[in-house]
Amino acid sequence: MGYRKLMPRLTMVCLLSAITTMVTDYAVGQTPILQWTFDEESGNALDSGTGASAEGVLQSTAGRTTSTPGGASAFALDMTEPGLDSWVNGGDAEKVDTLTQFTFTTWILLKGLNAEEGGSGNVRLLAKQGPGAFDGFSWNLNTPNNGERSPDNFRMGMFVGGEQSFGAAFSNDDLGADDEWTFVAVTVDTDMDEENVFFYVGKEGTAVEQLGDPITMTSGPVNSTSGIATVNVGYTDAAPGVDFSLVGYQDDVRIYDQVLTLEQLDQVRLANLNAGIAGDFDKNGTLDAADVDLLTAAIRNGGGDVQFDVSQDGQVDSADLSVWVEELKHTYFGDANLDGEFNTTDLVVVFAAGEFEDAVAGNSTWGEGDWDGDGDFSTTDIVKAFQGGGFELGQRPAVSAVPEPTSSSLCVIWMLAALGWSRRR
To answer: What is the spatial distance between Cα 183 and Cα 195, in angstroms, rounded to a whole number?
Structure first.
């Protein structure tokens, strides 16, 4: 068979192979599956997470306060009234059942602890936990490692009733939130055998940092509590009448079905503050394609707007694009859909847009293949993406290693070479 006939066939074989082997279980970026902001003036807390909505019903003595982290959002949850009725009921919410990896985040401001009103040592921040075998999960504030328990001295705890066993993990460092807005988070990865629970803390003016050492918890994936428990703030079905909410305020409760990195957690913290997220030029609370397109447009226009100087070197140029992609978004050049990975999905998306070397100047966006910021999708964009070495490696690691070519990446490179050869013909 002649070379001219062979090239198109090999190109099609490679393309089909790439499509059939693309990653389908990739992370969805920083999108919670459940989120209650409590920014409504009254009524239920609306769920802005993905999937079926799970509205939070405020119980009789729970309310709202205008005291919020950084003063940026409208309202926070007020649970200063003592007793059994200062909590939020989110219903069955099956979307948070059977999690294998998850991240919980929230803001807290304490004016007291439930023990002062006769409760146990478990202050329930977020729980969906059944009675008996304690299937499900409960994220708590617990008795500290050292000293007397107080609003300024406690530790975090995480309970998981899983497929293997009931597991409990506690932070080995203590923290406090006495009349001070404090960002807290926990991540759990039941696919890991060791060091699978991490606790985190941040403040309004302090970045998120790891709280203590990683903890090993043996539980397995979270057992379903469908039909036997509801997802709640300040309450658990496993211990009704015993474990109470915190005495104070709580805000922006989130559940993610993935493990967020330290950098991602700090972006969640910043989303509630006036400072906003670095690189979020349209101020919508997320780093997305609109932001990178605004940045590349600013670079092409001469770089006079200092808000785009994310590298803080006094100039707006390609260095800012690199910082935005690799440090702020923590992904790779070539990640067209900005899901945190550069893989075959991205190549399929950009070639489907039909703008590869189309001779129409300045018509391409990041999502259409313009990864070097010149406004067009061309061979230079492909070269820049593959130079990053992240193709089909998943999420960007903390320290990048030089990868060896995989069969899928070699196939894609062959396909792109074939496209270039056919265009030159």
So the answer is: 22
| DSSP 3-state of 51 | coil
- The pLDDT tens digits for 43-64 are 999 999 988 999 999 999 999 9
Q: Per residue in 344-381, pLDDT tens?
A: 999 999 999 999 999 899 999 999 999 999 999 999 99
**Would you state the pLDDT for residue 303?**
73
pTM of the predicted structure, to 2 decimals: 0.63
Residue 99 has pLDDT above 90, yes or no: yes
Q: Can you read off the two tokens belonging to residue 140?
A: 């708590």
More confident position, 30 or 340: 340
Q: Which of 152-161, 212-221, 243-252, 393-402 is predicted least confidently?
A: 393-402
HEC per residue, the chain: CCHHHHHHHHHHHHHHHHHHCCCCCCCCCCCCCEEECCCCCCCCECECCCCCCCCEEECCCCEEECCCHHHCCCCEEECCCCCCCCCEECCCCHHHCCCCEEEEEEEEEEEECHHHHCCCCCEEEEEEECCCCCCEEEEEEECCCCCCCECCEEEEEEEEEECCCEEEEECCCCECCECCCEEEEEEEECCCCCCCEEEEEEECCEEEEECCCCECCCCCCECCCCCCCCCEECCCCCCCCCCCCCEEEEEEEEEECCCCCHHHHHHHHHHCCCCCCCCCCCCCCCCCHHHHHHHHHHHHCCCCCHHHCCCCCCCCCHHHHHHHHHHHCCCCCCCCCCCCCECHHHHHHHHHCCCECCCCCCCCCHHHCCCCCCCCECHHHHHHHHHCCCECCCCCCCCCCCCCCCHHHHHHHHHHHHHHHHHHC
User: How far is 344 from 96, CA to CA, in rounded Å?
Assistant: 29
Q: Name the architecture of domain 34-271.
A: Sandwich (2.60)
